[in-house]
TrEMBL record:
SUPFAM superfamilies assigned to the protein according to its UniProt record, in alphabetical order: Cytochrome P450
Coiled coil regions in record: none
CDD domains: P450_EryK-like (cd11032)
Protein name: Cytochrome P450
Source organism, top-level taxon: Bacteria
InterPro entries linked: Cyt_P450, Cyt_P450_B, Cyt_P450_sf
The family this protein is said to belong to: Belongs to the cytochrome P450 family.
Pfam families: p450
Amino acid sequence: MTTIADTWGLHEGHFWLRGRRPDQPVSFDAGTGMWNVYGYPEALRILGDPKTFSSDTSRMVPEIARPAERSLTQLDPPMHSKLRKLVSHAFTPKVVADLEPRIAALTNELLDTAADTGRLELVADLAYPLPVIVIAELLGVPGSDRYLFKQWVDKMFEGSQRFSLVNRSEEQERNLEFVMEQAKHLSDYLGEHAAERRLRPRADLLTQLVEAEVDGERLSQAEVVNFANILLIAGHITTTMLLGNTVLCLDAQPEQLARARADRSTLPAVIEESLRFFSPFAALSRVTNVDVEFGGQQVPADQLLMVWIAAANRDPRQFADPDVFDPSRDPNPHLGLGRGIHFCLGAPLARLEGKVALDILLDRFPHLRTDPDEPPLFLPSPNMTGVRKLPLLTSAG
Ligand code: HEM
């Protein structure tokens, strides 16, 4: 069977995309000094037990790469529960649901702007700007500043691609310093906006975050900036990957594409299956707090675990025919958006943007196929699976 990974030459490390299984569900990698977790039940156990498997991975990285204040994703209970409750107060499902008309209008505007040449570069024309503008507008920072923060975020990802606990080379230190510098640009930028909202509140999410109060407690300036940071970064790459990956999955299976075109009520299920089959975030990280036995291995305390949710999503112990893209799976308990207390807070937004954008794309382009002469380019990070460039042909001729 030729897979999408074979057709387009995806990262060799992404063996699960080629229908291969790991030798063991849990194994130690002496090259990086980290443990790899590939199995579904093992991943589920880790994500469901924050007491044993901590999200505070900052203690494992060199000091220069440690943020002054940990963000939501790196906190454990009880701090995590407190902060999540506070930010959930501002970032509610209703706030997201109300964005649907704006997401549709933006999608149409962006596609109007894309020259009608019979071609579309999905990432530059739609999948990148759409989520960034949506999250920027929601936060209350100008969407037109996206070129400014794109360069910081892109450089952050470039610099953080290769990390090893074993090879603490000078190059790695320089890379980490570079990443931290870019992160600081973004934090300073958001900090200025947040400080401004304290003085002059507006109808936006930054103001709501500044004012959010639970049990008499408010977010500190650093906490507001940290959370806005996560949202802006998450808004940059995640939905971009989701949209690109979904279009690629449908492109590889014309019968599924025809089905999705004919019955748009199936789009949410198509998106869920895309999250399972081509999971954008391939790996999450955790640290063991204590010695623990799982997946047939004895793992000591203070070990860094890479939880490969993308591989777990292809575990035949959980999913029948895991290498078949089948949107009719029901249930589809994939781990693409995480699980447990850190389950993706942006899931309703990602799902909504994915559904609305895909629906409009299918409406506007009766023909939408990849171009064999101009293959997609993928993000170079081994921890992510997503397109960086996706040229599409929009006319059959
Ligand atoms: C957490 C995936 C879109 C905000 C997570 C986690 C995953 C994930 C796997 C769990 C991290 C962990 O357990 O360590 C995705 C994917 C997306 C997406 C695949 C798109 C398809 C978004 C968007 C936003 C967002 C659009 C916001 C604008 C967050 C936040 C967390 C999170 C704030 C941290 C929650 C916590 O730690 O309690 N996401 N995400 N995500 N995501 Fe997303």
